[in-house]
Amino acid sequence: IARLILDDVFGAKCFQSEIIWSYRRWSNSARKLLPAHQTILFYSKGRDFKFNTIFTGYSPTTNVDQILQRRSRDDSNKSVYARDQNGNVVYGGRKRGVPLSDVWEIPFLNPKAKERTGYPTQKPILLLEQIIRLSTDEGDVVLDAFCGSGTTLVAATLLGRSAIGIDISEQAVELTRRRLAEPVKTESKLLKNGLQSYKTANHHALALLNGISYTPVQRNNGIDAFLAETYQGVPIPLRVQRDGETVAEAASALYRAAMTK
């Protein structure tokens, strides 16, 4: 129903995406499936609109070769690994990650979250930050005509945007003012590390990387993870030295995994 109404208001041609906000809830549902998502309908004002592509990290199950090595097309237009004049596989250049999809895994505010205000419809700042990054740049103006607890305004302010909020409730307006005076944002370890980081097969090796921001991988015997930050746009693979393995052997395994198919 909401889609039909919004098509009538903005025009069906201005519909851009249906976004699924997926999260975990801290409640039980005995006689029905537990609600764990909400829908966000993305409309533009017209055909000419601002859209900033957001890149996310590679999945741990992504084939490492696809990240490290560059591909080209042969005479049959088949995708093959690019090679230099000596026949060696060419190391990939700058990799920005995977473009953001229309399914967003952003944690719901837990009952003890620092930013929780008690407002019944409050959304996490992380969610509004992602929406704002998609469609605005620093210095732009963000309008929320039903600002409620003020999360949109807080997120916009933290991202260097100007913000205008409107609400019929005086309590909502006062709450928003207080939040803008002292913005509080809850950081999510789950979102920062990634859901798959809790499901990796090599728990022992990755436990030794505690304190390092990384993305674990599963489909490679020589590489355990990638650093979250790249060096000059190039992903940095990691390997934890195994028991009984020399430094030279560990380095050799890492090199082979990084440079060969």
UniProtKB/TrEMBL annotation:
- According to its record, what are the GO cellular component terms? cytoplasm
Q: Name one GO biological process term.
A: methylation
Database matches in PANTHER family: RNA METHYLASE-RELATED, TYPE III RESTRICTION-MODIFICATION ENZYME STYLTI MOD SUBUNIT
Keywords noted in UniProt: Methyltransferase, Transferase
| Domain DNA methylase N-4/N-6: from-to ranges | 5-176
Keyword Transferase in record: yes
Organism of this sequence: marine sediment metagenome
Q: Name one GO molecular function term.
A: N-methyltransferase activity
Q: What is this protein called?
A: DNA methylase N-4/N-6 domain-containing protein
